[in-house]
Amino acid sequence: MRYWRADDRPLEAMHARFERHAYHRHSHEGYSFGVTDAGAQAFNCRGGSHTSAAGMVMAFNPDDPHDGRPADESGFTYRIVHIGAGLVADVLGDMAARPTGLPLFADPVARDPVLATALRRLHSALGGGMPQGESLVREELLVAVVAAMVQRGATRPVTVAAPVGEQVIAQRVRAMLDDAFAGQVTADDVAAAAGASRFVAYRSFRRVHGMAPSDYQRQLRLRAARRMLSRGHRIADVATAVGFADQSHLTRWFVRYYGVTPGVFR
Asked: How far apart are CA 239 and CA 175, in angstroms?
């Protein structure tokens, strides 16, 4: 695999081949646009099972829970670009005709050669060692990809909202986890924050956010770890700071969520 990250903006790119690796259910803070180069990747997203075969495009919204695994024993090769929601908003703000609010994508996978070509060009510009003097080309390709994705694949809304009562409960639990993600949180803590039973708290949170409270807490830890790693902190120190038992514990989950070790990411 190869991984690239911008120093000055929420923009990342990865190119990888997996034969056995399976992503744990997770989501990203920004948008993720990918294209499968070879083989096929199977994944669950938005209540359905999907497969991205060679040439197909994947689009994940911010905080869009999904997993991923090879569709068969031959594995798959793919490239993906992660773009922060704020960066997408900046790009759309410069376009004459833009949708109201941030775009959302109802279909997580599509067969669209135009989008696939645009994504490959941007990915190559980001991770392929393009000379620094070609930064203008990168910017133009980024704008082209965002514009193409919005014009060809975006729609609103994506999902039907959960009942108000469940949204309130999920919001309470999320606020508690956001504040205490690095500490030890029990089922009683979740129930207390929700003002409801453990079962109701779990059901409401999962329905609203698409994952269990424990998965959400782990994801918060991993996102904090990414931020610390990008600033150059030692992996062992990061593991302790964000709530993992040790460096190996952090590494195991980091790979399951992002497909790359903390050391490679750092």
From this structure: 22
Give the span between the Cα atoms of 198 and 187, in whole angstroms: 6
Place of tokens 């991205």: 52
Rounded to two decimals, what is the model's pTM? 0.78
The whole-angstrom separation of Cα 71 and Cα 126 is: 28
Q: Please write the tens of the pLDDT for every residue from 20-38.
A: 999 999 999 999 999 999 9
Per this entry, what is the length of the chain?
266
Do 216 and 257 form a contact (C-beta atoms < 8 A)? no
94, pLDDT greater than 60: no
Q: Please answer whether residues 83 and 110 qualify as being in contact, where contact means their C-beta atoms are separated by less than 8 angstroms.
A: no
Most confident stretch, 71-85, 117-131, 141-155: 71-85
Bridge-based pairing state of the strands 76-83 and 57-60:
unpaired
Which H or E element spans position 6?
A: none
User: Residue 55 class from Cβ within 10 Å (0-12 exposed, 13-18 middle, 19+ buried)?
Assistant: middle
Higher pLDDT, 135 or 183: 183
Number of Cβ within a 10 Å radius of residue 174: 19
Judging by DSSP bridges, how do beta strands 31-45 and 76-83 pair with one another?
A: antiparallel
**Host H or E run for residue 77:** strand 76-83
What does DSSP assign to residue 18? Answer: E
